[in-house]
Design a protein that fits this description.
322 residues; alpha/beta; Cobalt-precorrin-4 Transmethylase, domain 1; 3 domains; 5-stranded parallel beta sheet; 11 helices; 12 strands
Length: 322
C-alpha cells in the first residue's frame, strides 16, 4: 500500500476561503430544522429553501415538503416557511387569507433591499433593479411595490437602452448575488446616463458574494482548473465560475457532486482551485478532496486572508424547544 501511495501523481488544491454557507443560508436551513423539531413533520417550504439539491434532499428526509405554490398545502395544520430568496408581498397576504402559520426565512440582506425599494417608492421614485430575470430574489424584490414603477435590467446593453419616465426621480438597487465587476460596469453606465440617480446607502451585493468572488480572484491565475461546487440554478454559483474564467482560469466549471467531475482531465502536478457557493455545504468540499486523495497525492494550499464572522440568528419565536 505504501508503494502505491508513493506512485500516485501529485496535484495541488488551492482551497478558496471563504467558501460555502453564508449567514443567510445557514439561518434559513436552521429555521426549517428548528420548525421540524417544534411542530413535527411535515413542514412545508415554498420553493427551494436555498439553491442546492443536496441541502433540499437532506431536509426532505427530515420531513420538509417543498411546494411551488401555497395552493399545494392541503390544510393549515402545518407551518410553511418562505425561502431565503424572499417573496413578493402577495405571498404572506395569501398565507394570512388561508390562515396558514408561516415563517419568513428571507435573508436579512435581501430584506434590506426590500426596505430600500419601499423607501424609494414612498419618495415617488422610479426604481431600476439590476438582476436576473425570473430569479426568485428578483421576483420577490419586484413584488414589494407596484411593478409599473420598477425596471429590471440584466446587463450592459439593457443599461444603455433603458428608457425611464422621470430621470430626476430615479434610483437603483441590485440583486445580492451578482458579479461585482459586471455590476460595477452597469452602474457606471447608469450614472453617466442618469446623473441624478440615487444609490443605496450601502452596496446591495452581499458580503458573502463579494468575499467568495475575491477569494476566487486570488487563486484563479495559479490554477489549471477551478472547480466550484454548487447548483446550476444558483446565481452565486454561476457567478463564481464567471469570475474564475475572467481572472485567469478559462477551464473553470460548476459541479453539483463528485460524479460530475471528469477525473480523466487531471495529470501530474495539476493545480486545482476549489470553492463552494454560498448555498453549498462544506461536506461537499470535503467529499471532493477525499475523492482527490483516493486518486492522487494531494497538497492543499489554504488561503485565510479574508475572515468572516457574520451570524444571523433565527427568529426568537423559533428558539423555544420542542
Amino acid at each position: 500500500m505504501k508503494q502505491n501511495s508513493q506512485e500516485k501523481e501529485k496535484i495541488n488544491i488551492y482551497l478558496a476561503n471563504p467558501r460555502g454557507f453564508c449567514a443567510g443560508v445557514d439561518r434559513a436551513i436552521k429555521m426549517v430544522e428548528k420548525s421540524l423539531k417544534i411542530y413535527g413533520k411535515p413542514i412545508y417550504v415554498r420553493h427551494e429553501i436555498v439553491h442546492n439539491r443536496h441541502v433540499v434532499e437532506k431536509l426532505k428526509k427530515l420531513g420538509a415538503i417543498f411546494v411551488d405554490s401555497l395552493d399545494e398545502i392541503p390544510n393549515n395544520k402545518y407551518p410553511v416557511i418562505f425561502s431565503a430568496h424572499g417573496v413578493p408581498k402577495s405571498v404572506p397576504k395569501e398565507a394570512k387569507l388561508k390562515k396558514l402559520t408561516y415563517f419568513d426565512a428571507t435573508c436579512p440582506l435581501v430584506s434590506k433591499i426590500h426596505r430600500e425599494v419601499e423607501f424609494f417608492d414612498k419618495k415617488n421614485f422610479e426604481i431600476i433593479l439590476i438582476g436576473h430575470s425570473n430569479h426568485p430574489e428578483v421576483i420577490g424584490t419586484m413584488g414589494q411595490i407596484n411593478n409599473s414603477k420598477i425596471y429590471l435590467i440584466e446587463n450592459i446593453e439593457d443599461a444603455k437602452k433603458l428608457y425611464v419616465n422621470n430621470e430626476d426621480c430615479l434610483a437603483y438597487v441590485t440583486q445580492t448575488t451578482l458579479s461585482i465587476d459586471d455590476t460595477a460596469e452597469i452602474i457606471k453606465i447608469l450614472k453617466k446616463r442618469f446623473p441624478k440617480i440615487q444609490e443605496p446607502k450601502k452596496d446591495d451585493i452581499c458580503y458573502a458574494t463579494t468575499n467568495r468572488q475575491e477569494a476566487i480572484k486570488r487563486i484563479a491565475k495559479k490554477c489549471n482548473y477551478v472547480v466550484i461546487i454548487g447548483a446550476y440554478n444558483s446565481s452565486n454559483s454561476l457567478r463564481l465560475v464567471e469570475v474564475a474564467k475572467n481572472n485567469g482560469c478559462k477551464n473553470s466549471f460548476l459541479i453539483q457532486k463528485n460524479n460530475d467531475f471528469n477525473w480523466g482531465k487531471i495529470i501530474n502536478n495539476t493545480n486545482i482551485g476549489l470553492s463552494a457557493s454560498a448555498s453549498a455545504p462544506e461536506e461537499l468540499v470535503i467529499d471532493f478532496i477525499n475523492e482527490c486523495k483516493k486518486r492522487f497525492s494531494v497538497n492543499i494550499i489554504k488561503d485565510s486572508s479574508i475572515k468572516e464572522d457574520v451570524v444571523f440568528n433565527i427568529p426568537a419565536y423559533l428558539k423555544k424547544t420542542s
